[in-house]
Specification:
Layout lengths: L1 H25 L51 H5 L6 E10 L1 E6 L3 E5 L6 E4 L3 E7 L3 E14 L2 H14 L4 E6 L4 E9 L2 H13 L6 E10 L3 E7 L3 E5 L3 E5 L6 E3 L2 E3 L2 E6 L5 E8 H12 L8 H18 L10 E2 L15 H9 L3 E5 L2 E2 L4 E2 L9 H5 L23 E4 L17 H10 L10 H5 L4 H14 L17 H13 L1 H7 L2 H9 L9 H12 L19 H15 L5 E9 L4 E6 L2 E17 L2 E4 L2 E4 L4 E6 L4 E8 L16 E6 H12 L5 E9 L5 E8 L2 E6 H8 L6 E7 L5 E8 L8 E2 H9 L4 H8 L4 E4 L2
Parallel strand pairs: 1-17, 20-35, 24-28
Antiparallel strand pairs: 1-16, 2-5, 2-13, 3-4, 3-12, 5-10, 6-8, 6-9, 7-8, 10-11, 12-15, 13-14, 15-16, 18-19, 18-36, 21-26, 22-23, 22-27, 23-24, 24-25, 27-28, 29-34, 30-31, 31-32, 33-34
């Protein structure tokens, strides 16, 4: 891994030296006006660098300094740079709205003003760059597009954040003192024509009620420059900006303390602020993208990381030049791909970048728009349904699984039960699970023979006393007094009384149960009056605390013999209540090797266990357990298990995955629920719903191939409007559009609240990151993963 980083650094370091000269011509001037852009659009094709602009040759004079000897960079041919394994150079915008920035490095680094024949200075320590405006700030007239008005600050702030992510335009919240409303406004247009273009963009994006307003904005008076201050009284002033380059590949440059590979290009922009660009080789850039997009500690499968690395590389190449008007190629946030520089770099993601170096995804000979998201919820969606764009042949709805064959780690667990017949307890539940657990943990003495016939028979006094004593010991319950003697502990009332005092203590029962309680609970039973006086308090205590329930015919049958099966089932419930750790819990990871071994994850720790011969196996469905002869495990199922003193598993319950066999079942966003009151939902939808009057309801208008709500109807007292589902999702802050809606109603029949029961996280188009992990865990290659999510594509070297 160290060699990988050294190779990348040396290769890109040569390219950086060459590219410094090229940058002075290509990117030095502030860039032209950028058209508003709503995300996610169809990605532009890779573009050539922008044409060079004239560079000012007579910048304002600064305090004179004795020039240091100029250090010429080694000459590198452009053809050599292009053929480098580090890939083409790419420019990433780190900042565009700050007024000052601090640059530093652990070692020495080079500083060059962006002007012809500028000398390169070797500096060290921290340098402060600030925007300097000649003539100060003045107010100028501009046009903005007002999107919505709110009475609450937090709602206006929420919309501002959403619009800032979707648009490459300034977004402000105007506090209208006249009416007390917070008005969200977009843009800073110099002409009404430009504002009309922005209004059309917003209307097409679902903000149909947006309108143009006149406003004012601060404008720099005179020229805008950058001042540079550093150690040893270093001071420079430039209208064109500065380049910073590390003196060696090992000394990373830092922007406000955050380390980055490559060089920094810093210049003033038209907004009177600083633009900070990180210029580096593509492969170095990916080292900072991959761990920011997927956590390698949570999802450590190499094939998944490789697939996402190829998708990220393809996306970057396809979208290069998207922010050309701002002087860089891509942003470092979700408008492009999240990029965190050196700080998150990880050996696993580094390895994925190295192994896939130069690989990209193509369709019909062209780079694809490699869209991806966190979690697809079991199935991806057609891009045309999500973004209201023409269909894209490789971005079709697919199941989040490879259906061809069982995956690695899948297996069938085999077991056997002591009792094959179904045993029903007195409360109507299946008692097999509790009876077998009683045998496993030792409530039933070793060597005892149990059968369906014996369990249906009455418990003997010696059995009852021994089982209760063993259960109390296993539950680690300590009582200062022994249970009181009763006439016959083999009757139902007698057993409940004796066992309750042994577990909970006579003092606890007496202090928590009043005479009124006894009259109330026993008075609601058909035969409550038949409960013997000495046992009434214990039976009431158990009912009140739901430690025992009457028969389904509302009887207690106090004088009937206590069956063995009922006694064991009751004791196990109390043991688990008092000592929950009697069964360990975790998540099934995989079958390992050729033996009878399994891996189970508990918290952050994964352990390997041997299965006992013929373990007791149960399937858990919504709290109901069913004895089974085998369990098919695919991974990520919840399990509850008992480990013997030898370290083997002799009892295992498994809860099947509620999201089925989808490969993204490992994601915490595979299932989610969110509830809004009707008032809160109305406030969030106001900015996109238009003039529909008082909000009444929200319903799916059209369902996509995956089950997503691709269109939603918002209804009000004045009418209804149908909106793009993805826009509604953004307005509500939901994880995805793959959801169903449950409503709660007021007494008058109006809707009180909406609960969204959903699956997935993201737009639902393209590669599913957690699904890629699931496929990789099942033994599939990065090529199989990519060709599942991107239909009809090929993977080949781009450089």
């Amino acid at each position: 891994m160290r060699q990988l980083r050294e190779n990348l650094c040396k290769s890109s370091y040569q390219k950086l030296n060459f590219f410094i000269l090229l940058s002075l011509l290509v990117f030095s001037a502030a860039c032209g006006k950028q058209k508003p852009q709503v995300k996610p659009p169809s990605a532009p094709s890779p573009t050539a660098p922008p044409a060079a602009r004239p560079v000012p040759t007579d910048p304002r004079a600064t305090h004179p300094l004795t020039p240091e000897p100029e250090i010429k960079p080694p000459a590198v041919k452009e053809s050599e740079a292009r053929q480098s394994p580090a890939g083409p150079m790419i420019r990433i915008g780190l900042e565009t709205t700050v007024a000052e920035i601090r640059i530093s490095s652990a070692g020495e680094y080079y500083l060059t003003e962006k002007k012809p024949e500028a000398q390169r200075r070797l500096v060290k320590g921290e340098i402060l760059l600030q925007v300097e405006r000649e003539g100060g700030l003045k107010q100028s007239s501009v046009f903005r597009v007002q999107v919505a008005s709110f009475s609450r600050d937090e709602l206006a702030s929420d919309l501002k954040r959403k619009l800032s992510k979707l648009l490459d335009e300034p977004v402000i919240v105007y506090d209208n003192k006249a009416n007390g409303l917070k008005q969200v406004r977009v843009g800073e247009c110099l002409t009404r024509s430009d504002a009309q273009d922005l209004q059309k963009k917003l209307s097409a994006s679902g903000y149909s009620d947006a309108f143009i307003v006149s406003d004012s904005a601060p404008k720099a008076g005179g020229r805008t420059s950058l001042s540079l201050r550093g150690p040893d009284n270093l001071f420079l002033l430039s209208e064109t900006g500065f380049l910073f380059q590390p003196s060696s590949p090992e000394n990373f440059l830092r922007c406000n303390g955050k380390p980055y590979r490559g060089l920094f290009d810093i210049f003033p922009n038209k907004g009177g602020r600083l633009t900070v660009v990180n210029q580096l080789a593509m492969e170095e850039y990916l080292l900072g993208v991959l761990p920011a997009e997927i956590n390698p500690k949570s999802y450590p499968e190499p094939a998944a990381l490789a697939a996402i690395a190829i998708a990220a590389r393809t996306y970057a190449m396809k979208n290069t030049g998207r922010f050309r008007a701002d002087g860089f190629d891509l942003s470092d946030d979700t408008r492009s791909q999240v990029y965190e520089g050196v700080s998150l770099e990880n050996k696993d993601t580094d390895e994925a970048v190295q192994q896939t170096a130069g690989l990209a995804v193509y369709y019909d000979g062209k780079l694809i728009d490699a869209m991806y998201m966190s979690t697809c919820g079991g199935r991806t969606e057609d891009s045309s349904n999500v973004f209201d764009t023409p269909p894209v042949p490789y971005l079709k709805s697919v199941f989040c699984a490879i259906e061809s064959a069982p995956g690695k780690g899948e297996r069938v667990l085999e077991g056997r039960h002591t009792i094959e017949q179904v045993i029903v307890a007195d409360d109507g539940t299946v008692a097999n699970r509790n009876i077998e657990l009683a045998r496993v943990i030792g409530i039933i003495p070793p060597g005892s023979r149990i059968s369906a016939e014996s369990l249906a028979g009455p418990v003997e006094r010696s059995e009852a006393e021994e089982w209760i004593e063993r259960a109390v010991k296993i539950a680690k319950v300590r009582q200062s007094e022994k249970p009181s003697r009763v006439k016959d502990i083999t009757t139902r009332a007698g057993f409940h009384h004796y066992a309750a005092e042994a577990f909970f203590g006579a003092g606890e029962i007496k202090s928590k149960t009043s005479l009124r309680d006894m009259d109330y609970y026993l008075g609601n039973l058909r035969d409550g009056s038949a409960v013997p006086e000495a046992t009434r308090i214990s039976v009431t205590y158990l009912m009140k605390n739901r430690m025992w329930l009457p028969f389904s015919d509302n009887t207690v049958r106090p004088d009937e013999p206590m069956r063995r099966g009922d006694a064991l089932s009751l004791l196990i419930r109390w043991v688990e209540s008092a000592h929950p750790a009697i069964l360990r819990k975790g998540t099934y990871v995989a079958h390992t090797g050729t033996g009878n071994r399994v891996r189970i994850k508990s918290g952050s720790k994964t352990e390997e266990f041997e299965l006992s011969p013929n373990p007791s196996l149960f399937r858990l469905d919504s709290g109901r357990t069913t004895p089974v002869a085998h369990l098919r495990a695919i991974g990520n199922e919840k399990v509850y298990f008992h480990v013997t003193q030898k370290g083997t598993i002799d009892f295992l319950e498994m809860e099947l995955s509620p999201t089925g066999a989808a490969s993204d079942r490992y994601s915490p966003a595979a299932m989610w629920d969110v509830t809004f009151t009707r008032t809160a939902l109305a406030e969030k939808l106001r900015s996109i719903a238009g003039n529909i009057g008082e909000f009444r309801d929200l319903t799916p208008a059209r369902i996509g191939t995956s089950g997503r709500a691709v269109q939603m109807q918002v209804s009000g007292t004045r009418g209804a409007v149908t909106l793009n589902g993805y826009r509604v999702r953004n307005a509500l802050g939901l994880k995805d559009t793959l959801f169903t809606i449950k409503r709660e109603y007021n007494p008058d029949g109006s809707i009180a609240s909406f609960t969204f029961h959903g699956h997935g996280s993201g737009h639902g188009v393209g590669l599913c990151q957690v699904g890629a992990f699931g496929m990789a865990r099942a033994g599939h290659s990065y090529e199989e993963i990519l060709k599942t999510y991107y239909q009809g594509v090929e993977i080949r070297k781009a450089y």
